[in-house]
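Reading is simple: each integer encodes one residue's backbone shape. An example follows:

___
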Amino acid sequence: VSELVVSGSQGTAVMVRDGEVTLDSVEIDGVVPAEVPGNQGTGLEVREAGVLLAESVSVVGTSGPALVVAEGTEASCTACDLTGGGFASVVVHGSVELTDGVVTDSVLHDSFGGGVGVFVKEGDLVATGVDLSGHPGASLWLEGSGSYDVSSCSLVGETAGSGDGAGHGLVALGGISSWDGVQGLRLAGNTISSAGGAGVLLDASTASMEGNSWSENDVDLRQTTCDGVDPVDTSAEPSMSLDLCPAGADPTAPLTGDWAE
């Protein structure tokens, strides 16, 4: 499907199920919830063994997430513009690859909070060359064991964040390990800046880091809930500010609500 404009939808603008769909130069604008329970104003949804291959797709003005990738499904989005979205711009429980796109300006959802760019829970994420900014919670929010490979991206926090992540660049929690080539969290060659919280917050988690650039964060790296967690190796990083295992730090609570489950 190419050169398609979908405007003013209710529920979900485009749903992919039980097969592979290719979208090229598709615009989705303005999606509101339908009266049917469970349809929460999403732009693109991939469910029930679906596969989405998207290029130069624009999704703006959704009351829910711009893109939802359910467990057991796959999606790739190259040079996509995913702007806005309640709770998160992108929600992933399956496998997603984001390349050379923009994920910006998510908002807090009235019922579920959030305000994050890309939310992934126990899924697979490959993000390369993606610009993430304008998220009151966090640009990236990762929960639980999975495969998270983030490289050459721009993660811009919010200096006065108001979401669940309070303006962090990246939040990782729930036992995420360092990268072993397949699983864990890898951060390489990213620019992480302007976070009113931490550039990277690791709670009961760790990461592999190499060659990232850090600027104007309240603190570049904070690691909390450290018992039984490997320390972060920052030897391949430039000079950066650290707040490692501060006494009395509260654990970071996971996100809740329909899209977080």
User: Anything to note?
Assistant: Residues 55 and 78 are 5 Å apart (CA to CA). The mean pLDDT is 94.
